[in-house]
Structure formats: C-alpha cells, structure tokens
Amino acid sequence: MSRRKGGRSQSRFDHRPEEELVTAVEAAALLGVKRATLYTYVSRGLVRCVPEPGTKENRYVRSDLERLKTRHDARAGHAAVASGALRWGEPVIDSSVSQVGAEGLAYRGHSAVALAMEGRSLEAVAELLWTGRLPEQDPRWASEEPPFPPSELARLLPRDTPPVAALSALVPLLAARDAVRFAAPPEQEKARARRLLRQLAAWVCVAHAPGRVARALRAGTVAESLALAWDTKVKRAPELLNRALVLCADHELNVSTFTARVTASSGADLYACLCAALGALSGPRHGGACDRVEALLTEVGKPERAAAVVYERLRRGEAVPGFGHQLYPEGDPRSPPIIEAAREVRPESPRVKVARAVQEAGHPSPSVDLGLVMLADALGLPTGAAATIFAVGRAAGWVAHILEQREQGHLLRPRARYVQSPR
C-alpha cells in the first residue's frame, strides 16, 4: 500500500530515522479512537506504520498522527476553537509588531517601559514599530500646516465635543483632501502616517480653541504639539506626555488594532483604517475606559470617600474601572511610570489624591487608564484628554499593524456558526 506525498509514492512502511514512533495503544489514545479505527487509517495511507523487529507489533509515526488529529479537530471543533480565540483566547494572527508576556510589553523586542523611561520619543518608537529598526537618534518629523482653517471644523462641533470625537471628525476630512491615498506604496504610507500623527496631536483642541492648531502643528514633536494644543503650563509636560504616548503606542491585538487590521485587509486606505480604529476606541470597554475612570473619580470627589464609594460599587455588583488587566495578572507594567509622573509633577492635585485613595481601597493593580487620568489632571488638561493621549499614541501601533496586514495580504474574514435564535 502506498500514498502520494510531495509528488512521489510513499509506502506505509517508509519513515525517516529521526521520526518519532509510538505504540498502537499510544497512537489510538492520541487520536481518541479505537485500535480498529487506527488500522483503518493505516490501510487508507493516512498513517505510516513500521514493524517492530523481533515482534509482531507495529509502531506508528507520531507526526502522521498529529497531522491527522489536527485535521479532525479543525473539522469537528474549529468553530468552538475560533470562537474562544476571539474572546481573550489563543493567538489568531501572526505579528512581529509587539509582544505581551511575563516580561511585560515589548515593541519589536524592545521593552516598552525601558523605551519610555529612557526618554525615546514617540517618533522614534513609531519608526521602530513601522520598520523594525530603532533609530539611533530621535527623528525630527517635518512640521505641518492646517490643510484647511481649523475654524471651519470648529463651527461644526459643539464647544464641549470630546477631543477623540473631534479627531474622528477630522480624519475623514483629511482623507477627502488626499487624492492619492489609494494603494500607496509602503514608503509613501509611512510619510502619510507621520503627517497624520502630527495632525492628530495638534487638532485635539479644535472644538474649543481652534486658534491653537496652527501653532501646535509647528511644534518640534508630537508630545510638544499636544502640550501646545492644550496650553498646559507645566514645563515638563512634553516630556511626560511623550512617556505616556510611548507606553500607549501598541498593545498587540486590542480591539481598535484588530479593527484596523480587518479594515486594512479589505484594501481600504490608511485614513479609513484609522477612522475604523477610532470608532472602536470610543467604546466604554476600550479607550472609553479612561472616561469611566474620570467619572469614578468625580463620583468619589474627596479622598476620604474613596473606600465607601468603592464598597458600594462592589456591593451593587458594579465594576471599578481603572484596575486589573487580563493580560497582566501581576499588574500592568505601563501604569507605574505614568502614575509616578503624575505624582512627581503635581502630587497635590485633587484627582491624584483621590486616585491614590481609590488605589488604597484594596483593588487589583491599576491599569494604564487610571495612570492616564491621573497624569492628565496633574498637567491641567481638559476632560477627555486621557483617552486622547491613548488614541494619539496608539495611532503609531495602528499604522504598524496596517502595514503588516498589507504585507500578509490575506482578507480577514471569519465565519459565523449559525444557531437558531430562541423564540
């Protein structure tokens, strides 16, 4: 008996010396079948067997057994496996952009915390994420000009529009003015991405202070653009904002990044991918978590009320936002550097004090969302600034994943398992 493999005839008794062999009992157990079924697989050429010298027994090639089991599992249980993978399960996409592990968060093999604490700029980290190479010196991206008067967009937005919502309105307008955005080569896309990140940082103030946009676009770095746009008076603001931006730059397949990759797989342009990511980010269970933390600290009001408010939330079965992360059972490594920055610059800030009191109420370690809210308050930034820092920093990672998805070239199109709805 023989079967075709790689264009040649292969006997069921052929095997390479290095291939591992197992007994019939072990083979049947590995497949989860009876021995009679195992012999059927052998007769059909699906599993090779090798006579054991001096006995009447055969040995079976483990690699054949594992290949057959994988095929059967894919047919019988693929839907369940895939469904579980999409719910904080096993990895579903190959990526070399970032890694979350026991050692923390790494960008292309470089510790995110180390990059932030060394003072590497968001621009340098973005180039690392996009190219795989960390520049020796922090690059200087060209300054920009507003593509249209900021006052025109300001007239369309309520004055209290959250900054992230303002950016969601801005990006489609930038897209409409870029006629060569489709099917752009990678180097052109990187240049476009540099301009986009500069624009995102400078336009965060457009709803209430459109006059600052042009000045912010002329700043030297993305972090300086944010500081100018929000008109913070803290001298260290650009340095500390940059630290937060770097720590937010990427985080594997989070909701917004996965959304950007799915959109990129359809062939959509860079602006469309960022629009999709911003939409996903706005949800209260993702980037909107910062807004929930802001609401919690407002509810607490004073440090002495922290324990009571937390107790009541837990008693009612409500979540306490800003604490714990499923990927970091030992604590979110991004949080301490940001919380430390907030305490350094303005320890007397009311919200910093309230946040510290909430921390002391006995919760899991704080997430990056709590740190961002503390830092935004310490720097005197407006409501919604924490989520915006997250968005501007994460845009660097979105671009990296968009570029990587295009290189991989396949459409991300999972299947649904039909189930009849209850009547």
TrEMBL record:
UniProt entry keywords in alphabetical sequence: Transferase
GO MF assignments: citrate synthase activity
Record bears the keyword Isomerase: no
GO CC annotation, single: cytosol
GO biological process: carbohydrate metabolic process; tricarboxylic acid cycle
EC nos: 2.3.3.16
CDD domains, A to Z: citrate_synt_like_2
Statement: the UniProt record of this protein carries the keyword Phosphoprotein: no
Pathway: Carbohydrate metabolism; tricarboxylic acid cycle; isocitrate from oxaloacetate: step 1/2
Domain Helix-turn-helix: 22-71
Name recorded for this polypeptide: citrate synthase (unknown stereospecificity)
Organism placement in taxonomy: Bacteria, Pseudomonadati, Myxococcota, Myxococcia, Myxococcales
